[in-house]
């Protein structure tokens, strides 16, 4: 569900005891923020009307996250939970079942007796099956009691469901029930929460992933018929794979048989079983032929069954299995890896996961430290140490919690999970250098191959080297696939340790840890000679396995590495060129179709990116399967050296045909967005999708029967600056705000005033389909309002009021030369100045910060200003740095649009300009009272001077005069 689909909570929603306690806590928080007594807080008053400014909403969001471990976005606060009452109900509904259970346990001992009694009805008590443990304090007792109570309820529910089913099902049916209370949650669609609020977690561990009954997506009759037809055809085409899955389900616990479960396509959720493979093709047990784009999850660099590998395996198997003694090829394979990659020493294991585990153990053994850091979005295998998620905390360093059941919390305690590519992550690492053994990096994440932060990695390399922290590169996927020397050779970065797998095994289980001898010596003690007094001098750790260096695996790796050596970098360069051509061709097609789909790639790794809400995207991959293209599973796709140009063309053709078929029944609907944002306006009335039209609209005040008033956002993108003005205007007319696209990072922001205006016109017509219109705008918003008025008039609509607040015309906007030379610095100073000005802060010191910023490296500029704002109490100390970056990104886009806007025609109606008496915004027009607007209007501009400067004119007490003056003009309208 998208943000716009989350329904506001009614004031009439019932309040239980738990919610009442949350309400009291939120009231206390609000009173602390506003500096008033809790009795002065009305829990049903809109946050705007309560007096919460932008800084206050950030503080409220941070306080909610700290107190309740729930992330609440600015949009959620202003649109869906705009009162304390609504927010309390929302928080109550998001709290885990276990927390609610705690609220209803007045007596721990009584609850334990009740739990034991409940469970004993079904046989032996749960307590009798576990050893007795001591509970050090009441909190632990309560936790155990609540968990047992929840378990008892679940067991009772399961017991009743099972009994009812067994009364009606045959023994075989009862063994594999069609539906149980533990239906598996859909993985491709949201539940009733916005995506950003599904990461609720406690301070110590992620909540268990409770399976819930999924909801089927609403489909039209045509769509449902199309889906049923596709299911019927594929079920027939791959019937043996489906039958085999069902037959083995009772005894085979197979995660891949449930991967990507979606109730709507439940009948298609089963793996394809193969019987043979060669080159780029596979044949399933129904004898269907497919072009394989998954390529063994990236392991099959040369395709299936390359002849040079098959020959090596056949020769080796003829000599026996030989498990136990050392493979004669192990040393040769190690030398060849060192030759191709520039590594000093190599050790072997069975998988990428093993290699990661070995690298981490080496780093810990050598440094004597235990913590490791890695990054969100990376995958480092099925290892407890790296299966953790970072959640915000008060001190700026994310807390780490296990991201799946069964992983001990103490594993996450030894991990720091950070944003990849974020300069703030470097600062956090520096603060923890004393306890870090290693930083683990997937240099190009397979989850998002289009993100390639080379500069960040170079900075990370420099810091880890100086701090004595081991840098580990996970090149399990990119190693040998992108270059013989991997990403490190492409980007001229040398990690301390590197892990390899996949490509060197060509389908056989292998892993390798490679790196500097000083580190690798921890596995065998280091170099020594026979016949002298030398001996292993380095203290060693454990790294061993029965199947490490298996003779068959070594034979395959030896053949693969020799092939890579003889082919040279041309092999990877050719693959990259083919992948680029495939991506370019499909992206061109998607743009022509106005589809929000893009193929992103790095080397020969690629994937389709798209909004999670794109209806029918899952079906695209099943259509491809029907057309002989295998791209299921995790949808990380790869080209191999076996893929011919004809086969690649066949894949492209299958994608295009599938898109056409899906669009015929209104799946994969066109979007008005492109990768650059919204398309430029070429017509008088651009058609946007409904969610895009709704996105900018904020209802500030719903009371009143007069014609509505529309307020357009300023440079910061929000409409919070109009808070006190709206309250001062009274309640006789509705007031709406138009906020910027990209405010929440869900869309790319606009970079042209014309495009903003065209979009906002469609948005305001949701609230008022026909004119005359009343527009009010402050600062940069004046340009948008002016352009909106021009476009609305061209469309035949009347503008009854165009009020511009304290902004000169877009004619003479000369900037100092130094400002033009560093746009980021200019934007940062303006960004901070606007925040400070809105809070009534002394602005005289901000010009001094300009020279300081110019001297800082790019990566440190944002951190510097965030520190400055926090030191001045203008930003919460626990603000999410990612959110801060999103706000600044939007500010930069708006600033660029502001600087580049030049009106094309003269405005033919009356224009009002409200100027702050102490404002210096019109300094470029010392002899023009209209600040240049007379040159853009056919009628004389009416100038109204009100108390205050550019910022304080919108704050009390000055805003009262502005409101009175504005009301006097509004009363003149019809």
TrEMBL record:
Q: What cofactor is this protein dependent on?
A: pyridoxal 5'-phosphate
Enzyme class, one word? isomerase
The answer to whether UniProt assigns keyword Lipid biosynthesis to this entry is: no
Q: Where is the composition biased (Polar residues)?
A: 109-130, 164-206
| Any Pfam family hit | PP-binding
**SMART domains found in the cross-reference section:** PKS_PP
Matches recorded under Gene3D superfamilies: ACP-like, alpha/beta hydrolase, Aspartate Aminotransferase, domain 1, Type I PLP-dependent aspartate aminotransferase-like (Major domain)
Entry EC number(s): 5.4.3.8
InterPro entries, per this entry? AB_hydrolase_fold, ACP-like_sf, Aminotrans_3, Aminotrans_3_PPA_site, PKS_PP-bd, PP-bd_ACP, Ppantetheine_attach_site, PyrdxlP-dep_Trfase
Which residue ranges are recorded for the region named Disordered?
101-130, 164-222
Has keyword Protease?
Answer: no
Q: Which residues form the signal peptide?
A: none
Domain of life according to the entry? Bacteria
Q: What is this protein called?
A: Glutamate-1-semialdehyde 2,1-aminomutase
What is the gene called?
A: hemL_2
